[in-house]
Amino acid sequence: MSPFEFVLTIIVLSFAYKLIDGWLRTRAQTRADDPDKAVLLQRLDQVEERVRVLERIVTDERFDLKQQFKDLAS
């Protein structure tokens, strides 16, 4: 390997490192600072809680009994 190739390789590697480092930093900042993501995560938590409540209601044996009474009444 000639000295010219060696220097050229070092320059290319340093540029590649700076490029990758900048990309990773930008990617981390957009993930942490994204307000839409925080809103969506909060909304997802609310929806999950509502689903849990609905599952609890539907699987409750009293719910089934109330449904049977409604069916008899109609």
Molecular structure report:
The protein has 74 residues and is mostly helical. It has 2 domains: 1-33; 35-74. Helices cover 93% and strands 0% of the residues. The longest helix is centred in the N-terminal third of the chain and has 31 residues, at 3-33. It is rod-shaped.
CA radius of gyration is: 30 Å
Domain count: the total is 2
Low-confidence stretches: none
Oligomer kind: single chain
Please state the average pLDDT score: 84
List the helices and strands and how they pair.
Elements: H1 3-33, H2 35-59, H3 61-73
Fill in the keyword field for this structure.
single chain, 74 residues, mainly alpha, 2 domains
Summarize the structure.
With 74 residues, the protein is an all-alpha fold. Helices cover 93% and strands 0% of the residues. The mean pLDDT is 84.
